[in-house]
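WARN no homologs supplied; continuing
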Amino acid sequence: MITVKSLGGRAINVDVNGTTVSAFPKEADANAMISLLGAPEEEVTKGTVSWPGEYDIGGVSIRGIGHDEGQRVSYVIDDGKVRIAFISSPLHDWSGKNLELLGDVDILCIPADDVKIAQKLIDEVDPRVLVPLPTKDEATFVELLKTVGAQEKEIEAEYKLKGGLPAEGREVVILKPSK
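OK structure emitted
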């Protein structure tokens, strides 16, 4: 089972079959088995990933995709059944090579920095589940929700994927930050 929770802003926590992954926390998350940081750090602590490359930790495959000559990193995690992408902020246009590295994504966690770039990336990736993250300001977040047809959607404490992914269309999940 996969459980997705918001930690506020672009920070998100995902439990993948018992392995806890924290993406873009302000600092390494002591409660997570794996912390994915948005910018490379010279000294990396155990369980922290901050560089582009491929990793396998706790039964979860991780691919770090570098942007801006390696100054920022986005991630894809894969448990063999579901691929979850965490896109770094600020958003920018993705090259064909980076989209290829991203691959087929089932759950896309995307910051609401720029509505046009977000929509373009959402269209290119075409995820089954979309998790927009409020990062810039309330107006930009609301505009992105309108663009993806989710302005009337209820805010949830967490999203649980128990069985399979939605067979058709796209499910948009709006998360309330957990304390």
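The radius of gyration is 15 Å.
OK
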